[in-house]
Design brief:
The structure holds two protein chains of two kinds. Chain A is of the alpha+beta class. Chain A contains four helices and five strands; from the N terminus they run ααβαβββαβ. In chain A, helix 1 runs antiparallel to helix 2. The two termini of chain A are 20 Å apart. Helices cover 59% and strands 7% of the residues of chain B. The longest helix of chain B is centred in the middle third of the chain and has 42 residues. The chains are: A alpha+beta, B alpha/beta. Chains A and B meet through helix 3, strand 3 and strand 4 of A and helix 3, helix 9, helix 11, helix 15 and strand 12 of B. Chain B: Probable transporter of a GTP-driven Fe(2+) uptake system. Chain B: Keywords: Cell membrane, GTP-binding, Ion transport, Iron, Iron transport, Magnesium, Membrane, Metal-binding, Nucleotide-binding, Transmembrane, Transmembrane helix, Transport.
Chain lengths: 114, 700
């Protein structure tokens, strides 16, 4: 499990760097998905204080307003604070501070930054 | 030349209202009450050349893509309204710390081809935050003029006024090319609607109406002119493309012309956040703040209130002693003065409430309350954002219901609108205060004042009822609307004295003037009805009373009282009162209370004024309202009219009943149908009747 997670991070880094590896990467992701269905990092997986880079998401599920607040692929997101009962996530997305519900956050994939 | 029509637009929390206050001073009108149904603040601003500009303060909005009812208002004004009421000029207020997001809206407004001035507010913090701005570059790239303003310090306002005056020189070119979003789509769109502006077409085609009741929401552009409309999914993809395009433009500009020293910026904010949104401390602080608010409303405002009560009593006495006796003097002393007194008396409380609410909002604390309360509120079908209306509801349900516009989800918004009137508003206060003073002993119980405790219970009762009905409504209402929630967490700011003062003055004035008008009219009508009668019995009251056996031995004072009450019984009001008495007698009320109940349907606070008017007709001394009521005897039971069971029954009735026409009107306006206000009326008043009935019958 730990190994697979480790590989996933590398995969995303590679994806950003080069087109050549894309095929291999896709195979790897498929492989990962088959092995373990839950490997997916979203904003909801961030820990307090952690940062990540927003990846692609389905525009259908995400309110336009959220995009307008700066929630766009490639932007940096940081989890500032969790509300009591961990329901709301207080985020800083490239200088814009706002809170969204966990269910929405779980739809936005990210790559965690170190 | 006609007055220049200026619209003030901006993101929430950018100090837009402060700029508005600086521009207009106290020359502003807020339409908070129906009858004068204006939803926007309008003020006049004197320009350097002596001409005047009419400034409209629009609700804060993040974008022209409509996703909430507040944004709907803004877009409606810019797009749909009659050409002559469309603004000549937009002044867009941006916060220097959040320029990126603020410019997003700016580029959208630019695409409407209306002249725009960009106001960069809070310019005073730039040196402290290490921010530098290349104004010349910004003006060139954004095709606009920029005013660096600090609404807090009052700097830059004169420059802004000069720019407003020269608005004709402004360029109306756009920042981005709208057709870049999807050239094919836009070509089709243009073909289907030749001659129309593309961006406006695009806005109307992508307008969401999830926050509205679908069936009743206003028309969308369904007339497609044979235009092959794309699916919702594709449209949303295009919207994302649009957003990205705009941010690309903005980021490039900011990179070239905006420098910020990041180290200085976030520290204080995160430290305060850590405390205020802490999972235990956060709630404790919220509770303590609420406690402080209510404490001040009761304890601190009781002094000015006693003073006002006494003042009006002695004023009435002075009038009736000084002016020559006659029906005009009677009208003044028995109708007008007690009626007005009944409303002025709770000015201090309204002022305190709005003082606290505006401080909480201005400081940025309210957003933290939203943050910590969302989970709890969602269980009852409400949103964290419902906290703001529910708290404002303690002042008045009308602004509170208008404050629900920020809730994105229609179901959550509707439930909030429906339950807010249960919250104890300030109009209930005079009713509560007078009845509590009459029936609850002024003693301490375990160190707490019993009267204060009763008031607290009444507040809790309202809150519990609101939450309970929200819970029920959440189960019953079958409304499918997409649930999402985005709440901005603004930075902390010291509330501006000017803004707070304006809010307090405006709201208190509004309240006194608008409620005062109704109360004045009702008092006069009541007084007339109470001092005139149709029958011979009324006219000959004196002889009839004197002729009754046993009345001859009475002292003069007792005789006068007997005559007065006989007269009142046979006056118009007495006759009406006796007709409705059977309905309300099971609740422990006599016909005089019944009259007050009916008249206070217009507004709860009328109750006290009505009682004051009814009871003061015919009496010689002008006592305070309280002593007058406490001496009143029920003619059926022979006991005091305001005894414990009747008092409790009245308190419960006012806690639950929908006794406010203005609220009904505002609910109608916000829900676009009479269905919801009528349901509210019947449910609330029915529930109030049953509870009051049960309470009276049990205690009696």
């Amino acid at each position: 499990m730990g190994l697979i997670r480790f590989r996933k991070y590398n995969i995303i880094a590679l994806l950003k760097q080069s087109q050549i590896f894309r095929k291999i990467v896709n195979e790897n992701i498929n492989c990962c998905l088959m092995l373990n269905k839950v490997i997916k990092n979203t904003i909801a997986h961030l820990k307090k204080g952690e940062k990540g880079i927003i990846g692609e998401y389905s525009t259908d599920a995400i309110p336009v307003k959220l995009q307008e607040m700066g929630c766009l692929p490639g932007n940096e997101v940081q989890l500032i604070q969790l509300s009591p009962f961990n329901d709301l996530l207080y985020l800083n997305i490239s200088g814009s501070y706002f809170a969204i519900r966990r269910e929405t956050a779980a739809l936005i994939e990210i790559a965690k930054a170190e | 030349m006609a007055e220049l029509n200026v619209a003030l637009i901006g993101n929430p929390n950018t100090g837009k209202t402060s700029v508005f206050n600086q521009l207009t001073g106290l020359n502003q009108k807020v339409g908070n009450y129906p009858g004068i149904t204006v939803e926007k603040k309008v003020g006049t601003c004197k320009l350097p050349d002596g001409s005047k500009a009419r400034i409209t303060d629009l609700p804060g909005t993040y974008s022209l893509n409509v996703t909430s009812a507040d944004e709907q208002i803004v877009v409606q004004l810019l797009l749909d309204s009659e050409p002559e009421s469309r603004p000549d000029l937009v002044v867009m207020v941006a916060d220097v710390e959040n320029l990126k997001r603020n410019l997003f809206l700016f580029t959208q407004i630019k695409d409407l081809k209306i002249p725009v001035i960009l106001v960069v507010n809070m310019a005073d913090i730039m040196p402290r935050k290490g921010i530098s701005l290349d104004i010349a570059l910004f003006e060139k790239q954004l095709h606009t003029k920029i005013a660096l303003v600090s609404a807090r310090k009052g700097t830059g306002i004169d420059e802004l006024k000069k720019l407003i005056l020269q608005f004709r020189e402004l360029s109306v070119s756009s920042c981005i090319k709208v057709t870049d979003i999807d050239p094919v789509y836009f070509a089709e769109l243009q073909k289907a609607f030749p001659g129309e502006d593309l961006y406006k077409l695009w806005l109307t085609h992508t307008r969401e109406s999830d926050f509205l009741d679908h069936k009743n929401s206003e028309h969308r552009l369904h007339d497609t002119n044979g235009f092959p409309e794309r699916s919702q999914t594709e449209r949303k993809k295009m919207q994302q493309k649009e957003t990205i395009l705009r941010y690309l433009f903005i980021n490039k500009l900011l990179k070239e012309g905006y420098k910020k020293d990041l180290a200085a910026a976030t520290d204080l904010r995160s430290r305060i956040d850590r405390i205020l949104t802490h999972r235990v401390l956060g709630y404790v602080i919220f509770f303590l703040i609420m406690l402080l608010v209510f404490q001040s409303i009761y304890n601190w405002s009781s002094y000015p209130m006693d003073f006002i009560d006494g003042l009006f009593a002695s004023m009435a006495e002075w009038v009736s002693n000084t002016l020559p006796s006659g029906s005009f003097t009677e009208l003044l002393a028995e109708g007008v003065i007690p009626g007005i007194g009944g409303i002025v008396i709770f000015m201090p409380q309204i002022a305190f409430l709005f003082l606290f609410i505006s401080i909480l909002e201005e400081s940025g604390y309210m957003s933290r309350v939203v943050f910590i309360m969302d989970r709890f509120m969602r269980r009852f079908g409400l949103s964290g954002k419902s906290v703001v209306p529910l708290i404002s509801g303690t002042a008045c349900a009308i602004p509170a219901i208008m404050a629900t516009r920020t809730i994105e989800n229609w179901k959550e918004r509707l439930i909030t609108i429906l339950v807010t009137p249960f919250i104890t508003c300030s109009a209930r206060l005079p009713v509560y205060l007078i009845i509590v003073a009459l029936v609850i002993p002024d003693q301490n119980f375990m160190g707490l004042n019993l009267q204060g405790l009763t008031l607290m219970v009444l507040y809790l009762l309202g809150l519990i009822m609101a939450i309970f009905s929200a819970f029920i409504l959440n189960k019953i209402l079958k409304i499918k609307s997409r649930s999402f929630f985005v709440a901005e967490m603004p930075g902390y700011r010291m509330p501006m004295v000017k803004n707070v003062t304006y809010t307090v003055v405006e709201k208190t004035k509004d309240f006194v003037v608008n409620a005062g008008k109704i109360i004045l009219a009702i008092s006069i009508v009541l007084w007339f009805l109470a001092s005139h009668g149709p029958s011979e019995q009324f006219k000959n009251a004196e002889e009839i009373v004197m002729a009754q056996p046993g009345n001859t031995q009475l002292s003069e004072e007792e005789r006068n009282t007997a005559i007065a009450s006989y007269k009142l019984r046979h006056s118009y009001i007495g006759i009406i009162g006796h007709v409705i008495e059977p309905v309300i007698r099971p609740l422990g009320y006599d016909w005089k209370i019944g009259i007050a109940l009916v008249t206070s349907f217009a507004a709860r606070e009328v109750f006290v004024g009505s009682l004051a008017t009814i009871y003061s007709v015919g009496t010689e001394e002008k006592e305070t309202i309280k002593t007058r009521l406490s001496g009143e005897i029920n003619e059926w039971t022979g006991e005091k009219t305001f005894n414990f069971p009747t008092g409790i029954s009245l308190l419960l009735f006012y806690a639950f009943a929908m006794q406010c026409m203005s609220t009904l009107a505002v609910v109608k306006r916000e829900t676009y149908s009479w269905k919801w206000p009528l349901i509210q009326l019947f449910f609330m008043t029915g529930f109030a009747y049953v509870t009051a009935l049960l309470a009276y019958q049990f205690i009696k």
